[in-house]
């Protein structure tokens, strides 16, 4: 596979699943005194936890929230208190807003759990608890999606919303997931290459998805295509597609449809039926198309965002080559004060 380190990928995603023991330890200490859990990040890594909160929304009565760090510190939620636990994901562990957030939480006597992807960072040192797994940009989405799921699933177990057998089944499948994701990457390789060659000059994409999968549509548009490739995008929730965005569809407009395996899939199906009538540029990325050997149907239903992230990384790897635009190149981000 193009520019792909198989051993590093497997090490990272295996490491992500192994952090479950630390997640359990933190929640065992804190859950009895916690009324709600906030996932608060900045930029792309924060967006990933939209999938976590959407997963929990229809499956758990426990209050989970995802907010943006900079805005939250200006206008905190009314439910935020010293009975909140704040989970702070950060790949670098140095992001200005997240470090300010830790200090803000300390001032309000709120415990924090940092999920960091780099060793010995300021965030890791300042947070109440810190869990480290060695992560780089191209492996980060799967890592954070999995950690978010493991947090919610353990809360659901402790609150009696799932039983031990259900919980163990999910975690057992997660342990097999790195190898299954590797198989999905191999399957996606020619698809990603073909997409990159077809769309290397495409200036604009409409990207849609629903349910647990919309976070990846939003993340891929904003953080990969816009930030890393300078391609304009319009991420739109599939349920909202027919409340405005449909009027932009005409011949030559690129539409990327992300389809997962939860109950919201029918919303993406509706978009898929509509857009080919009016444009010839339709890309469907469907997690059902990927085999995922050894993973049960019940687990497949909750990991659509993880699978989409793995598949789309192959699209990105080819795009940066055919466009001669490295994914690491920025004009403004962390280059200047703003």
TrEMBL record:
Keyword Hydrolase: yes
Alphabetic keyword roster: Carbohydrate metabolism, Hydrolase
Gene3D superfamilies reported for this sequence: Glucose-6-phosphate isomerase like protein, domain 1 (3.40.50.10490)
Pfam families hit by this protein: SIS
Enzyme class label: hydrolase
Transmembrane segment boundaries: none
EC number per UniProt: 3.5.-.-
InterPro entries: Fructosamine_deglycase_FrlB, SIS_dom, SIS_dom_sf
Role of this protein: Catalyzes the conversion of a range of fructosamine 6-phosphates to glucose 6-phosphate and a free amino acid.
Name the record gives this protein: Fructosamine deglycase
Organism classification: Bacteria, Bacillati, Bacillota, Bacilli, Lactobacillales
